[in-house]
Structures are given as C-alpha cells and as structure tokens.
Specification:
CATH class of the largest domain: Alpha Beta
Number of helices: 8
Radius of gyration: 22 Å
Strand order of the largest sheet: 7-6-5-8-9-10-11
CATH architecture of the largest domain: 3-Layer(aba) Sandwich
Length: 290
C-alpha cells in the first residue's frame, strides 16, 4: 500500500523592514536567519546613513516557515543589534482611516485606486468635519462619520476620532485635505501613522486661498508635499514631493486644477509606499526604498 507524500507547508511572501545602528554583519546575519528558515529573498534594499549612523533594510522573502517562528528568530537578532523591525505579508491591505473636509479630489482618488486594486489599503472609515463628502464614501461603501470641529468641541471630536481608531484597529490615518490641525496629543498617539498632503509653493503661502496668492505673485512652479504629521505644523518627515509648471497665462482656476492633480498623485504614492513598508523614519527625515 503506497503512502501519499505529506503536503508541503504553504509558502508565504513576507516583507521585513528594519533599522538599527550601523555596524558590520547586519546583512549577513539577517540573510542567514532567513536562509535558515528556508527563505528565498526576492527583493532586498539597504541604506546606511552616515549623518545619523543608522542602517535601514527592506527585504521581501518567500518561505514556508511559520511566521511566528521567523519573528522569534528575528527578535533574537534585534536584541543583538538594537534593532527595530516589522514583518508583514506582502500586499496585505493596511487598515486605513481617511479624513477630509470639503475638497473631494484626494478622497475620491484614494478610494478609486483602492477599488481598482492598485492601492494596498483597506478603508475602514471616512471621517470629515463637514457632511459634504458623505455621498462619495457611500458610493464606495465606506462608513462615513461626521465629526464637526469647533473651538469648544475640538477635544470631544478628537476623543471620538481616537475611539474610532482603536475600535476599527486602524493602522494608518490619511489627511486627504482635512482642513483642521490635529492636537499635539493626537499627533503623539499616532506618531508615524498619519500622512498629510500639503500644497508646496515658493514662497510659501499660508492661510486662505493659497492658489490665488500664488497667482498674484506669479509663481512658475506649483506642487505638493506628503509628509508624516507631527506636533510641528507641516514640518513632519517628508515622504514624497512633486511639482507642476505653470505660466503667466494660467488663471487661478487652472492653477487650482493642476494643483489638485499633483496633490492626488503625491498623496497616492506616499500612501502606497507606506502600506508597502517602503518608508522608514530616520530622525526628521525618511528613507524611502523604491
């Protein structure tokens, strides 16, 4: 009587992102651990920052080893090298909460890219301080939460936001043209987990109608910056930037349209790279592996 061969364990495709003080032997040791667990490296990138003395690495690996077993082995390496690391499944949708106000372009773009399976996020909620964008969330079947913000209700609204983050197990918050400033407390609790999109001009135009201000000064380039949110307003670590050329013939409406287009592109790239674990914090900067 013949015996059927034992089924082989299912293979996983995992992504490992790590940082630690730079020293000899890091790549050799990490690669060795992956090899010991039957890992086949499919992608590997490294960077040593001479200005901070930190080393960064991102590896994608295929392995049939149990993930918990691999994490335990990497944990021992982390202790040896004073390393922080994260191990996740390649392509796993990151549970994301999107915040917006009245402008629809960034919210619509993120939800469309998600539905068309080009953006590895799982939008679990849309939160807005105005009700205007409820129809967009409804169209994409994402729960919409209207949390009005006024000086006397800001603390209550942010408490509701943080409850939602915990209840929905949110991993990433995206400010898709959310026109409110998050408090220092919220920024601290969600450090490294909030991405904002901001228009970029030279000189910098703050306050109402920045495109009108830029038009009035005759700017030649408009652009956008996606960055992590910190307590220092619009000064968090930058993830991605892009620009669009304009001329004296472009009126304010045309500049707004071009600006919104570049904002969409920049924010989508930043969210994708974060979800794919390609962005690692390096003090006030980021390391972004393409």
């Amino acid at each position: 009587m013949s015996t059927a061969p034992a089924a082989r364990p299912a293979e996983q495709h995992l992504v490992l992102a790590l940082s630690c003080p730079d020293r000899p032997g890091i790549v050799h040791t990490v690669s060795g651990v992956l090899a010991e667990h039957g890992g086949n490296i499919t992608e590997s990138q490294q960077f040593g920052d001479p200005s901070t003395g930190l080393f960064f690495m991102r590896v994608q690996v295929q392995t049939a080893a149990p993930r918990a077993e691999l994490e335990a082995a990497l944990g021992a390496v982390a202790e040896r090298f004073a390393m922080t690391f994260r191990l996740d499944e390649v392509g796993r949708p990151v549970r994301t909460l999107i915040m917006a106000s009245k402008d629809a372009h960034c919210l619509s773009d993120l939800l469309f890219r998600h539905r068309s399976q080009r953006l590895p996020i799982d939008p679990v909620a849309v939160v807005a301080n105005h009700p205007d964008l409820a129809d967009i969330a409804d169209f994409y079947a994402v729960p919409f939460h209207h949390l009005p913000v006024a000086r006397e209700t800001k603390a209550e609204a942010e408490a509701a936001l943080l409850r939602l983050v915990r209840e929905r197990d949110v991993e990433l918050v995206v400010l898709a043209r959310y026109m409110q400033v998050l408090s220092d407390e919220v920024c601290r609790e969600l450090t490294g987990r909030v991405i904002n999109i901001h228009h970029s001009f030279l000189p910098s135009f703050k306050g109402a109608r920045p495109y009108a201000q830029a038009h009035g000064r005759g700017v030649k380039l408009i652009g956008a910056t996606a960055h992590y949110v910190t307590a220092d307003l619009d000064e968090g670590p930058i993830i991605e930037q892009d620009v669009e050329r304009v001329t004296h013939a472009d009126d304010v409406a045309e500049m707004v349209a071009r600006g919104q287009d570049v904002e969409r592109r920049v924010l989508a790239r930043a969210v994708r790279w974060h979800a794919e674990h390609r962005v690692l914090l390096d003090g006030r900067r980021t390391v972004v592996f393409p």
